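anyone seen this seq b4? input:
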Amino acid sequence: MSFSSLPRVSRVIVAAAVLLACGSGLLAQTPSQTGSSTGSAATPAAMGAAASDPVVISAGGAQLHASEFQALLMSSPAQNQAEMEANKRAVADELAKMLALVDAAQRQGLDQDAAFKAEMLLTRDNALAKALVDKLQAAATPTDAQIQAYYDAHTSDYVQTKVRHILVGDAETAGGPNPRTQAAALAKVQQLETQLKNGADFAALAKTDSDDTGSKAQGGELGVIAPGQTVPEFETAVKALPVGKISDPIHTRFGYHIVEVESRAPQPLPQVKAQIVEALSTPVVEAQIDKITAAAHPVISDSYFGPEPAAAPAGSAPPAAPAAPATPKQ
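predicted toks r here
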């Protein structure tokens, strides 16, 4: 398997790792570049170190030791490490090309360029900041008991509802081509509501009368939806609707909906554990970051960046968030 056949993300990771290594001095240089005397005798300790950590890739004046190669693999995202470990040779081939470019760039003095130095300094600082945030996140990881308690107190937040609907659009529906007036749409949806509550087949009516082209062929099936996936009017009505019941007409910016809830159940804890860990740990980490920032007494030049924006008046409402789509994204 060639490295070029690996997913692009793996190649980008390898390239980024090499650049980061170069900027941090991880890549070893040949003796002539480090000032070692040519012809000087190697000490037994040096010979032992070389044997235990040999150079595994070299190109021009740049070298990579076995320990450094492993460090680069381990610094990649966890989901890529197994793939890269299984394709070491392909990864090494790509690294050799990068080392050759690094060597040529250094010989041309590009590593002394001010823009390059600034970029590498920022890369180093970002890596350091991320390392600290990772440490804070590890320390803020909640216990299993805390996760269970949060889940028990917020079970309703993780309820999944299986629904199907019939949509009757009108001329006021954003982006909709339907020429039907809103009054005509309401009249039609009320007729459909009557038919359904008198026992008409929901799927059959959805296939013939729904204006939702994404679900009508499936009998109006929207599948399983979770809190926050639909616009508020739709979500509120669905949440209050008992399983197996037909809703009254629900009006959203997409038109009028008739909905049936087919099932409703909370997601098992293992499926939402990662979300709960994030919900519990994020505020702790953010508070620690704020504390660290305050202790550092940061100063930002008003003359260079402009004055700090004035604080919003007390009690003022934040900007409205954009509405979610009326139906889940397919």
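The first strand starts at residue 28 and ends at 29. Residues 18 and 98 are 7 Å apart (CA to CA). kinda curious what u guys think
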